[in-house]
Specification:
It contains 8 helices and no strands. With about 230 residues, it is mostly helical. It has one domain. Helix 2 runs antiparallel to helix 3. The longest helix is centred in the middle third of the chain and has 44 residues. The mean pLDDT is about 90.
Length: about 230
């Protein structure tokens, strides 16, 4: 029990940890609003206010986050020319998303002209979706490489000594952990892509409260899993 509490404290001490928690509030309240809108208007209104407040607080909390793209490219630009190119496109799109998200937030709280909100939302969502596409492609490439590496290690494990077998088992475990984390990243990015598409090109599927709510929760909980202390 104490170990779980310690991990929760560590998780909530991270900016991403707080973001995933508030994102959960945001999309749970969206689903609650949809569920009770016809039967309990007062409760639906409260849920709508909770959703709006959560969304605004997340935008404020992400101030300056567009700079993390530079840091990501500096620390891990990619192991091959292809991955380096994809990393530039992915992080570039994410930087556009976070940068214009500042102006969207300022427009929604009344600091800037409210008419700018729709335009800033479109640019931010376009950058977001552009970046997520290349993050997804990169993760699938790395997952495929990991599967190939695991197959080679399995062959080596069958032919090697006991000491080599232990080292190989450890390497295989690391590959599997990395694969799970990348699959979580893919799930989060696909879910966020659905949310971004609802802003770029409104349509009945992406803009439905259930689609947005489930997508938001998938993204939040996949991020929660990735950021939870090991």
């Amino acid at each position: 029990m104490n170990d779980r509490v310690d991990k929760l404290v560590i998780f909530l001490a991270k900016r991403d940890g707080i973001d995933k928690l508030v994102k959960t509030f945001q999309y749970v309240s969206k689903l609650v609003h949809w569920h009770v809108e016809a039967t309990r208007p007062e409760m639906a209104q409260r849920a709508k206010q909770w959703e709006f407040a959560s969304g605004l607080s997340r935008k404020a909390f992400r101030s300056g986050r567009f700079l993390t793209g530079f840091n990501a490219l500096r620390r891990n630009p990619g192991s091959t020319p292809t991955l380096k190119f994809l990393a530039v496109l992915a992080n570039g799109g994410e930087m556009v998303y976070f940068f214009f998200d500042h102006f969207l937030w300022l427009a929604r709280i009344g600091v800037l002209d409210g008419k700018l909100a729709r335009r800033m939302s479109f640019i931010s969502a376009f950058g977001e979706s552009f970046g997520y596409i290349f993050f997804i492609v990169s993760d699938f490439i790395l997952i495929t490489e990991g599967i190939r590496a695991e197959r080679k290690l399995r062959v080596a494990k069958e032919e090697g000594s006991k000491d080599e077998e232990e080292n190989t088992s450890s390497s295989i475990k690391k590959i599997r952990v990395d694969r799970v984390m990348r699959l979580m990243a893919v799930a989060a990015n696909v879910a966020d892509l659905v949310i971004a598409l609802a802003d770029i090109e409104p349509n009945p599927f992406c803009n439905h409260a259930v689609s947005l709510g489930i997508s938001g929760l998938v993204s939040a909980w996949a991020g929660w899993y990735r950021n939870w202390p090991s």
